[in-house]
Specification:
The structure holds two protein chains of two kinds. Chain A is an alpha/beta fold. Chain A has 17 helices and 22 strands. Chain A folds into three domains: about 190 residues, Rossmann fold; about 170 residues, Rossmann fold (3-Layer(aba) Sandwich); about 70 residues, no CATH class. In chain A, helix 12 runs parallel beside helix 14. Classes of the chains: A alpha/beta, B mainly alpha.
């Protein structure tokens, strides 16, 4: 076995990121590593590349025990890595990037001619005939990615880890990169391939290892798995177990849509999609990580410029080109990463709650302190934010209470359409149910909500309608009685032909 | 053609155009005398700007160099006045000192992960203060060896004088070009300027490179101080105020990206000469105030920053339009 990992363990304060994971990579195979967010994929990779030191377990490369302390050491041992974001320097030439640190020298100086020849020779083996004297940054991402692969192979040459190398490539470029990867496999390299795109996993890989919650779930030959069983393994339950839950309330049928989005899209991010949102409706977005859920929401809120598409309400067209304009149109967006995008940790609860409202009023017209206090107290009571007082820095609250404060900020602005990206991420079970209940009460007052969640149960519990995304496309819409765990799973896992 | 070379070509084109323009008004400006003076008068600036180029390429900045030049002058003058040491010995001690000073700043920048701006700002005050401590007054240098240095020149055809310090400046530029473009250290400097995180992943020894870059800048500042003392024949603690900013300006006018990672040492030489040319023109004209130099430099600087922004946008849109 080329690379062998035995009972690998890595613990961070409070969490066990990897718990006794085994994995083997043979020479001449492409081995997919799959798992949802937090499954431990990136921790495993970082342990292999030397970015993290493992706490326990054994890693052997060609039968020799290794314990790389740095990325450089791992590279020299034979493990090269190519990341999603090209980790080369766009301001250096292709040749400089390829041979950095190993430049041919003559009389102590870099021999430019020899360097060019060597770089051209190397790249020819990857089917690239490009001007190696031009800056790397002037080439497309696919070519940069192939140069990165070439560099990793030249330096390391035994194991190649591809960490979502295709995330920013289009279909044609993906095939270009895959050709290169297949060539390397045939030359006897062991390749670890991480990707959220299931089509690519089936297209390229020989075996699959699936992680969940830091543990290995299974290793199987790719061909022996169906899409469905792969998704079952990733999400951690069999479809049979999913009990169809009756809807709490019957869907009221297609009401007059409050908002209509048509053809919203952006190349390489999300394919154009239509979306209607009714008044008081909760729409759920389901899909695996990387399927384009968050991206869809960002487009709707103008956080990411859409290349195409229009938005209408019952009165006429809306301009949602930037978040500011979207807010003016009555939209709200509570992003996924609460800590970096949602709260200002050092400000008090009161200050966090009035932040959005104040920004909309403009800083020249401060909200009177009395009014601020009233708003803060109202929402602390209404949303049941557990705190010793409104003047406590929000960073000191628990995750669930922080999330409630973020909600309060948007509620204070009284939006008609609120987008919640993973509203229950990192929140304990009790608060979890409370947030869901809160979302339902909001809609009673006519607010429309779009909920993004990777927890299917959560969507089933809260959404009137669920849109399913796969590989950056909106592929299915489930309404009424169709909104069940098994239906959503089926839609996520459906074969590409469906 | 590489878009990153465009600022360099623009610099060279502007210099040549300005020279032709000046020449049509004052034909004498195209004489070996003027060219010789251009090199001599700007020798100290050119040398310190070469050091600054490497610092800026690495993504940093060195604000201490002007003060280090002043300190060097006073250090030399006081030592030559008060001790019997030979100037060459004093030079060696000084270069050792300024190099160590630069290396120390580089070490702090790297180890404490402090902004170069702040660390070298402290260095600027420190060096200026040290100069004051040695002497508040201007100290003349009377050592006979200095007379030899000042009188050393080659007579070019047309009676132009190619002085020792002018030649030294050109030599330093060549040295800088070799270091920046033909050594692994130079490649590491560009890599750091392109992105620290990536550079580390590619095997750049960040600490070592940072220390060496600032040490080199310190060495160049010391050498520039020596040249300045030869040029002025004295050491004065108030000398070379603001030279660090002029040096930064010449580097940027020379086509180097202020945020690092792209540029050419040769461009810096052209930048220095452009600045010298403007000053020469003002002298030839006779009626213009010398402050016009600053105004023109300011405009040039602005034009170059805009040019670089434009190029950046150009290369980005071209990339977005599809695979190259």
């Amino acid at each position: 076995m080329l690379l062998s990992i035995r009972s690998l363990t890595k613990t961070f304060p409070g969490t066990r990121a990897l718990d006794g994971v085994d994995m083997d990579v043979a020479a001449g195979e492409v081995h997919a590593l799959l798992g949802e967010n937090g499954a431990g994929k990136s921790t495993l990779i970082k342990c292999l590349t030397g970015a993290y030191r493992r706490d326990g377990g054994l890693v052997t490369l060609e039968g020799v025990r290794i314990d790389p302390r740095s990325t450089i050491e791992a590279q020299e041992l034979g493990i090269g890595t190519v990341y999603q974001e090209v980790n080369l320097l766009p301001n250096l030439t292709v040749a400089q990037n390829l041979l950095f640190g190993r430049e041919p020298r003559r009389f102590g100086m870099i021999d430019g001619g020899a360097m060019r020849r060597q770089a051209r020779g190397t790249l020819e083996r990857y089917g690239l005939e490009i001007d190696v004297d031009r800056d790397l940054g002037s080439y497309s991402v696919a070519i940069q990615q192939i140069v990165a692969i070439a560099r990793a192979v030249e330096i390391s040459g035994k194991v190649l880890i591809l960490d979502e190398p295709t995330a920013s490539l289009d279909a044609c470029e993906v095939q270009m990169v895959f050709e290169v990867v297949r060539g390397l496999r045939d030359r006897g390299m062991g390749i670890v391939f991480v990707s959220h795109f299931l089509d690519q996993v089936f297209d390229l890989t020989d075996r699959v290892t699936i992680l969940r919650n830091g543990c290995k779930v299974a290793t199987r030959p790719t061909a022996s798995l169906s899409r469905m069983s792969l998704v079952e393994h990733m999400l951690g339950r069999a479809l049979e177990e999913v009990v169809a839950e009756p809807r709490a309330e019957a869907a009221t049928g297609p009401a007059e849509p409050l908002l209509q989005f048509r053809g919203m899209g952006r190349t390489g991010v999300i394919e154009p999609f239509d979306l209607d949102v009714g008044e008081g409706e909760v729409v759920g977005l389901a899909g695996l990580l990387g399927s384009g859920r968050t991206e869809s929401a960002e487009l709707l809120f103008g956080a990411r410029p859409a290349q195409s598409g229009t938005a209408h309400d019952t009165q006429g067209p809306l301009n949602i080109a930037t978040p500011r304009k979207a807010i003016a149109a009555g939209f709200g967006f509570a992003p996924e990463d609460r800590k970096t995008d949602g709260i200002v940790a050092d400000l008090t609860i009161r200050e966090n709650i009035i932040l959005g409202l104040q920004a909309r009023r403009g800083w020249a017209r401060p909200i009177p302190r009395v009014e601020q206090n009233r708003l803060a107290d109202t929402y602390i009571r209404q949303l049941d934010i557990r705190t010793s007082g409104r003047e406590k820095p929000i960073g000191e609250l628990s995750g669930g209470n922080q999330q409630k404060a973020v909600l309060a900020r948007w509620l204070a602005m009284n939006p008609r359409f609120l987008i919640l990206d993973e509203p229950t991420r990192g929140i304990d079970v009790g608060a979890h149910a409370e947030i869901l209940r809160l979302i339902r009460t909001l809609t009673e007052s006519g607010m429309s909500v779009l909920v993004i969640s990777s927890e299917i149960d959560e969507l089933v519990a809260v959404a009137d309608r669920v849109i399913v995304l796969r590989d950056r496309r909106h592929v299915a819409q489930l309404t009424g009685d169709q909104v069940t765990g098994s239906q959503i799973m089926r839609a996520i896992a459906q074969e590409a032909a469906a | 053609m590489n878009t990153r070379a465009l600022p360099l070509y623009a610099t060279i084109a502007i210099f040549l155009a300005a020279y032709v323009l000046a020449w049509t008004q004052f034909p004498n400006i195209l004489s070996t005398r003027v060219i010789g003076n251009l090199l001599t008068d700007n020798a100290y600036l050119g040398i310190v700007a070469v050091g600054m180029t490497l610092v800026i390429l690495s993504g940093g900045i060195d604000l201490s160099v002007g003060s280090v030049i002043a300190f060097s002058g006073v250090f030399i003058a006081v030592l030559l006045r008060d001790t019997g040491l030979h100037p060459l010995v004093v030079f060696a001690a000084l270069l050792l000192l300024t190099t160590a000073f630069g290396a120390g700043m580089g070490f702090l920048i790297d180890r404490l992960a402090m902004p170069a701006f702040i660390v070298t700002l402290a260095g600027m005050f420190l060096a200026r203060g040290a100069a004051y401590m040695l002497s508040i007054q201007s100290v003349p240098i009377t050592h006979p060896f200095y007379k030899t240095l000042q009188g050393a020149y080659l007579l070019m055809p047309g009676k132009g004088r190619l002085t020792l310090i002018g030649v030294l400046m050109v030599a330093v530029v060549v040295l800088g070009m070799i270091i920046a473009h033909r050594t692994r250290f130079g490649a590491s400097v560009y890599a750091l300027g392109g992105g620290e995180q990536t550079a580390r992943l590619m095997g750049v020894r960040q600490g070592r490179t940072t220390v060496l870059v600032y040490a080199f800048s310190g060495l160049m500042a010391g050498l520039s101080g020596i040249v300045f003392s030869i040029y002025t024949g004295s050491g004065y603690s108030l000398a070379a105020v603001g030279t660090e900013l002029t040096a930064i300006a010449t580097v940027v006018i020379g086509g180097t990206l202020l945020s690092g990672g792209a540029g050419y040492v040769f461009g810096t030489l052209v930048g220095v000469l452009t600045m010298g040319l403007i000053q020469t023109y003002i002298v030839f004209d006779g009626s213009l105030s010398s402050w016009w130099t600053k105004i023109v430099i300011g405009l040039l600087l602005l034009a170059f920053i805009l040019l670089q922004k434009g190029l950046l946008r150009l290369s980005r849109t071209r990339l977005n339009q599809g695979p190259a």
